[in-house]
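Before the break, one more example. Copy the sequence into your notebook; we will annotate it together after we see the structure.
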Amino acid sequence: MKNLPNPTEAELEILQTLWQIGPCSVKQVHGLLQEKREVGYTTILKQLQIMLEKKLVQRDESARIHLYQATISEKNTKEKLVQKFVINTFQGSSHQLVMQVLGNAAASASELEEIKKLISQLEDQDPTHQII
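Here is what the structure looks like once it is written out:
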């Protein structure tokens, strides 16, 4: 699965639906995406066919209605995309990324607490590791 292509923005939108709901028909994916924005049924069908060719999804054809399911995990996909983004946008610096994100959007008190816990956990794993 490591050699699979990165999903496009449109493919990610479909994958998000499949990750949240589980196996879906084209009609179900279309209905859920239609709630967010205007999108054609045939567009979703074609996109799922392309994703099937790319091995980003698999199709269960055992029933009359074919169901599509993500073949890549949400966690691994996000990790891969974030890593590529950090390398390409911030020259590999997670420090620059975090500072940019925290500077652009106000974090709630609970979000800041979660960030502090994560930093603490990372420091506990490797006390010599410098965090930001």
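The chain has six helices and two strands. The mean pLDDT is 89. Try to locate both features in your own notes.
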